[in-house]
Amino acid sequence: SETSITLVDTLSSSGLIGSISVQPSAQVTLGRPVSIQARVRNQGNAARNGNALRLRLLRARDDASVAQRDVSVDLAAGAEHTMSLDLGALALELGSYRVQLEARTAADAPDAYQLLAQGSVSVVDGLAPEVGIVSPAADALLSLPARISARIVDQHSEIASAQVRIDNGEW
What we know:
The chain is mainly β. It is 0% helix and 49% strand. The relative contact order is 0.21.
């Protein structure tokens, strides 16, 4: 399924509006591809030529740029432009990210980007830890109380705790 994250701000001086959607959703499992789609529309009554559009993925904890796509477009009155940032091959870390769609018109200073839309993406660990019984052996007959040793490994997350239950007994 697709989850759309859209916060729309109008660039009043340019008549541009934008939206962002993240596919497959705003919560992505580590190692799975993610695609960010952006749409910019000229809501004005006149053509807007020489628009610089920038779609960025920023790590939330430090605003470091992780990926970016820049395009230059001319937009007739009422016209739309779509762009995407496909992150299939990019290995994202666990954590939160911000997505920003920004625009700069031909009349703006080179670094005068204005925010059109923003959203967020979270990369989560969707893989279960590996669990293996070290002792006793699988076919061992034991009397209670018995000592059980296990090895638990998670490649991406810390193991906070582990519980054991025998048959339908308590955890």
